[in-house]
């Protein structure tokens, strides 16, 4: 009886496969999210500010008029 | 040619995800950050070709992915005769993703063909739909689906032996379960 219940929860041959797949997915996301959680390194904040400044120079002139 | 502050803010918010994508693809933080930098410069220079209202994240990922692929092809040619040195330098980076727990995954990822690896990362880690991933890679949705499936199967094969013991019922229990199923 109880065996049957377990068998339903983890059906036949696909069971282990699904567990491994779930674990792979989990690890993949964990590895990925760890980088996402590091935020924006200064290098890129500065770069974007610089690029933004270079691009918006004409606009600033317009605005200042 | 105007990047308004709002657009810059949107791009800034995507940078962490771009980095995660680049690091997952390349396995090397320094190289990944160079890729991100090139991507940002390209994006800003070509901001006019971005259609407002469409997915900025997908657009940036496309630029980065194309950059990575052309560079990958180039480097691969350069590296072929150095035999393993390049791979070594990937693993020895101290502050990168290869914390002990990810080491096996990283090694398994590196063994995948690059088209399967990028498909798996886009769908399995970045959270893009199959349709979005197909647009980013410039291929059919069915192609992405089969690449993701093949990548998953291959990773499962690579990691199987190591993961089997800490996953659910052990072999004996499974044998019993299978036997019960047959009855």
How much of the sequence lies in strands of chain B comes to: under 5%
Q: Give the % helix of chain A.
A: over 70%
Biggest sheet record of chain B = none
Helical content class of chain B: over 70%
Q: Helical region count of chain B?
A: 9
Overall pLDDT metric of chain B? 81
Please tell me the CATH architecture of the largest domain in chain B by its name: Orthogonal Bundle
Given the structure, what is the number of helices of chain A?
A: 3
Helix and strand run of chain B: HHHHHHHHH
Largest sheet of chain A: none
Query: What structural class do helix, strand and pairing data of chain A support?
Result: mainly alpha
Spatial shape of chain A: rod-shaped
CATH-derived topology of the largest domain in chain B = Rna Polymerase Sigma Factor, Chain: A
**Structurally, how many domains make up the residues of chain B?**
2
Shape of chain B: globular
The CATH class of the largest domain in chain B turns out to be: Mainly Alpha
Which blocks of ≥5 consecutive residues of chain A have pLDDT under 50?
1-13, 58-65
* Strand segment count of chain B: 0
């Amino acid at each position: 009886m109880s065996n049957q219940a377990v068998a339903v929860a983890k059906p036949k041959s696909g069971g282990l496969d699904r567990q491994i797949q779930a674990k792979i997915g989990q690890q993949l996301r964990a590895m990925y999210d760890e980088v996402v959680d590091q935020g924006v390194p200064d290098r890129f904040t500065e770069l974007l500010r610089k690029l933004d400044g270079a691009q918006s120079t004409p606009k600033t002139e317009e605005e200042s008029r | 040619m105007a990047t308004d502050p709002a657009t810059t803010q949107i791009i800034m918010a995507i940078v962490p995800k771009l980095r995660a994508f680049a690091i997952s693809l390349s396995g090397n933080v320094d190289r990944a950050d160079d890729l991100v930098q090139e991507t940002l410069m390209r994006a800003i220079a070509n901001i006019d070709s971005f259609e407002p209202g469409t997915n900025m994240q997908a657009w940036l990922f496309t630029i980065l992915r194309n950059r990575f692929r052309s560079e990958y092809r180039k480097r691969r040619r350069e590296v072929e005769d150095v035999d393993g040195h390049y791979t070594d330098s990937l693993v020895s980076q101290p502050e990168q993703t290869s914390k002990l727990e990810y080491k096996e995954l990283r090694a398994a990822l590196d063994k995948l063909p690059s088209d399967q690896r990028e498909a798996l990362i886009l769908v399995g880690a970045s959270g893009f739909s199959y349709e979005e991933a197909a647009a980013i890679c410039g291929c059919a949705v069915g192609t992405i689906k089969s690449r993701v499936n093949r990548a998953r199967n291959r990773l499962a094969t690579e990691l199987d032996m190591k993961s089997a013991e800490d996953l659910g019922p052990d072999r004996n229990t499974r044998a019993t379960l299978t036997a019960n199923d047959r009855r």
